Structure formats: C-alpha cells, structure tokens
Automatic annotation (TrEMBL):
<feature type="domain" description="N-acetyltransferase">
    <location>
        <begin position="2"/>
        <end position="159"/>
    </location>
</feature>
<dbReference type="Pfam" id="PF00583">
    <property type="entry name" value="Acetyltransf_1"/>
</dbReference>
<dbReference type="InterPro" id="IPR000182">
    <property type="entry name" value="GNAT_dom"/>
</dbReference>
<protein>
    <submittedName>
        <fullName>Ribosomal protein S18 acetylase RimI-like enzyme</fullName>
    </submittedName>
</protein>
<keyword id="KW-0012">Acyltransferase</keyword>
<keyword id="KW-0808">Transferase</keyword>
<dbReference type="InterPro" id="IPR016181">
    <property type="entry name" value="Acyl_CoA_acyltransferase"/>
</dbReference>
<dbReference type="InterPro" id="IPR050680">
    <property type="entry name" value="YpeA/RimI_acetyltransf"/>
</dbReference>
Amino acid sequence: MISFRPMRDSEYPAYLDYFITDYATEISANYGLSGPQALARAKQEIANDLPHGINTPGEVMFCVVNQTPEAESVVGYLWYRPDLASRSAFIKDFYIFAAHQGKGFGKQALHALETELARTGFEQIRLRVAEDNKRAKHVYEGTGFRVTGVNMSKTIKTG
C-alpha cells in the first residue's frame, strides 16, 4: 500500500541530488541552455523555491512510501504547494525511483493524494508536465488529469 510521510532533514540532500540533476536536464532540453547554465539555473530556482529546505512555509515535501507486511520502503518523492483559498494543490515535483517505476506506485500515490486532499476540503490538483515526458503524461492521464493549457516559450537571441 502506498502512503506518504514528511520528508526528513536527512533525506533532503538525496532529494536535491535527484531533483537538481533532473531539472537541469529538463531546462537544457526545453530552453537550449548548456549543461553548466542549466545546472546553475536549476540550483538557483530550487534555492528560491525552498529557501528553508523541507521547512519552507507553504510547501509540502513528502516521501512516497510502499508499506508491505514485511517492510516499509521509500519509493519516491512528492512536493506540492497547497492553496487554501482556491482549495487546490499544485504538484511541483513527483518522482517514483527508477527501480520502482512500472509497478503502479505512481498511480497509487496520485490516488492516495487525491483521497487525502479531498478529505481535507481540496477540490483540485494541478501540475505542469514537460511535453516530452511521455511516462509522466501516461500516469497523469491514467489517473484522470486532463490538459488545461499549453506552456510555450521562445528564446530571444541577443547581439
């Protein structure tokens, strides 16, 4: 069974190791930045978004946990921002470790999140997913998410 628990201070460095590398790859692919430029931008953005790490007010940082009768193991991460005024939550990052992908944990986690949010009065979950992230899009669409817009950008050449 999939559940969540707050991310621990001791787990945050491993989260950053995964997130910064993954996000830098996405930035490079989507915005045409070099590897070092994308890495610097990813580091700056995470520092801006989570200035107090897992204790940043208004941000929820969870570990996705698979509980079996034999053991409990962390299989991924979930970071979201609740918006009480609009009764919505925006998923900022959701990741199931590669070794645990394809086992239904992503769908189970999204269902568990939906159940918990609904229980506490939330009415909507929102997120952004990269166009080329087919695996994530499949999981989101398979759990009832639908496209509500399209992000677009253009790099301005200087000089």
